[in-house]
Amino acid sequence: MGLEYPDDLKYLDSHEYVRLDGEIATIGISAFAVDQLGDIVFLELPEVGEALEKGTSFGSIESVKAVEDMYAPISGTVVERNDALVEDPEQLADDPYGEGWLLKLRITDPDELDEAMAAADYRALVEGE
Questions:
Q1: How far apart are CA 31 and CA 95, in angstroms?
Q2: Angle at 53 between CA 84 and CA 17, to 5 degrees
Q3: pLDDT, tens digit (0-9, with 9 covering 90-100), for 22-57
Q4: 2-36 burial by CB neighbour count: b if 16+ within 10 A, else e?
Q5: Where do the structural domains in the chain lie, given as residue ranges?
Q6: CATH top-level class of 10-127
Q7: Which DSSP string corresponds to the chain?
Q8: Number of Cα atoms under 13 Å in the Cβ half of residue 20
Q9: Higher pLDDT, 65 or 105
Q10: What number of other Cβ atoms are within 10 A of residue 68's Cβ?
Q11: pLDDT band, very low/low/confident/very high, at 107 (cuts 50, 70, 90)
Q12: Calculated CA dihedral for residues 44, 46, 52, 57, nearest 10 degrees
């Protein structure tokens, strides 16, 4: 089964994605990252109200194989976090781009996404690995 990379998202080479809707950015991790991690057992996310700087770690994801830091693809303030996933991190594998979102941020500078990759570029990166 081929992994999906929706075209309306921007991607980082560290496998986070961003869906921008006005000044709200929905952040998650790509299907590729979920697939590589395997069974996800623990998720650590920042609290609502926390300010994140682009490029800094905002939490970690732990699977039976590894613990990986997750990095903010854009700066902003956390307005919502997906507590259902914190309670049951395995759900992430079911729908990484829908119900499996991690955070929603009120962004400070949309231009920070200029360096992020389009879906086709990200697909080329991960499928070329």
A1: 8
A2: 50
A3: 999 999 999 999 999 999 999 999 999 999 999 999
A4: eeebeeebbbbeebbbbbbeeeebbbbbbbbbbeb
A5: 10-127
A6: mainly beta
A7: -PPP--TT-EE-TTSEEEEEETTEEEEEE-HHHHHHH-SEEEEE-PPTT-EE-TTSEEEEEEESS-EEEEE-SS-EEEEEE-HHHHH-GGGGGT-TTTTT--EEEEES-GGGGGGSBPHHHHHHHHHT-
A8: 18
A9: 105
A10: 18
A11: very high
A12: -20
The residue type of 24 is: I
Indicate the length of the chain as a whole number: 129
The widest CA-to-CA distance across the chain, in whole angstroms, is 38
What does the pLDDT read at residue 1? 45
Site of tokens 């079911």: 94
